[in-house]
Amino acid sequence: MNQDIERVLLSEEEIAAKVKEIGAKISEDYAGRDPIIISVLKGSFMFMADLVRAITIPCTVDFMSVSSYGSGTSSSGEVKIVKDFDNSIENRHVIIVEDILDSGRTLSYLMKTLKARGAASIALCTFLDKPERRVVPVEVAYSGFRVPDSFIVGYGLDYDQQYRNLPYVGVLKPSVYGE
Ligand code: 5GP
Ligand code: MG
Ligand code: MG
């Protein structure tokens, strides 16, 4: 295990099983609807890669990037679209794929913006959720795991751009970010 990780929350095996389950559910729910699956970079890239391989129906894959966190561990409340996705979502069924839902500010803002672009439907799929941290209410269609209110890294999630490559999800030692 990486020396900066206090404890492993989710093993590779647990993650793989859950991602398969969500992929199967989405395939069932969206059969015949060619959904656009949009990954919110960078945190969701690994979840996205595994998820779309678990989806067995035709779908469109796209990416966008928003900034809400700097290099710290708490939300600034400001959300900016840094890279927009390429496809038109007019009259399309959209699934937004996020790494972790925390205060809800990022996804709440995104939902508002994307609804204005005329999608037929928009659903949220988050790998992790910290429900007790919610500041803005957000409706989640697909959620992988509830996690405690600790700073979490791995499987795409970073601290200061590090640890994204860990194949498991773990709690970062507070000493790493100076607490
Ligand atoms: P929200 O807008 O819901 O407060 O923040 C969501 C974003 O904050 C996530 O997409 C993620 O980038 C970041 N975030 C929130 N909690 C954590 C965490 O425990 N670990 C990491 N690495 N990022 C987090
Ligand atoms: Mg994110
Ligand atoms: Mg980050």
Automatic annotation (TrEMBL):
Every Phosphoribosyltransferase domain range: 11-159
Family: Belongs to the purine/pyrimidine phosphoribosyltransferase family.
Function: Purine salvage pathway enzyme that catalyzes the transfer of the ribosyl-5-phosphate group from 5-phospho-alpha-D-ribose 1-diphosphate (PRPP) to the N9 position of the 6-oxopurines hypoxanthine and guanine to form the corresponding ribonucleotides IMP (inosine 5'-monophosphate) and GMP (guanosine 5'-monophosphate), with the release of PPi.
Species this protein is from: Butyricicoccus porcorum
Cofactor: Mg(2+)
Pfam families per the UniProt record, alphabetical: Pribosyltran
Record's keyword terms, sorted: Cytoplasm, Glycosyltransferase, Magnesium, Metal-binding, Nucleotide-binding, Purine salvage, Transferase
Reaction it catalyzes: IMP + diphosphate = hypoxanthine + 5-phospho-alpha-D-ribose 1-diphosphate; GMP + diphosphate = guanine + 5-phospho-alpha-D-ribose 1-diphosphate
Name the record gives this protein: Hypoxanthine phosphoribosyltransferase
